[in-house]
């Protein structure tokens, strides 16, 4: 994960403050300025230390959160992968014949909007019925799914 812009900016400002502090301390050592060490520490050293500390804390927190998110995503991917066994295309072709059964008191199963196979979920955002195979390619952040049986016919 890339660090947010505000955190990168904070790190750069901290680096510039430390650079100014080192240059100012060198100038004081050489006697080119009439300032004291306390002035240099107050103007450049203390803010540089505080910003550096804040940058280190925030970077560590974001690094830890990123690791937790990756672990959670891996667990979710494994769980979803076991739950969603994608059938082979041959199974889809066999199921396509069953997808629109003759009327026997039940409503016919809607077919997938992409391949005409039997659909299992319906995307309410895009109004598309989806089979298992096309669910993964269709999925995005704005999608909201319901079971096909609950769609309004």
In terms of topology, how is this protein built?
Elements: H1 5-30, H2 37-83, H3 89-99, E1 121-123, E2 128-130, H4 132-138, E3 145-147
Antiparallel strand pairs: 1-2, 1-3
Helix pairs in contact: 1-2
Please tell me about this protein's structure:
By secondary structure, the protein is mainly alpha-helical. It has 4 helices and 3 strands; from the N terminus they run αααββαβ. It has helices spanning 5-30, 37-83, 89-99, 132-138; strands at 121-123, 128-130, 145-147. Strands 2-1-3 form a 3-stranded antiparallel β-sheet. Strand 1 and strand 2 (128-130) form a beta hairpin. The longest helix is centred in the middle third of the chain and has 47 residues, at 37-83. The two termini are 43 Å apart. The model is unreliable at 97-103 (pLDDT under 50).
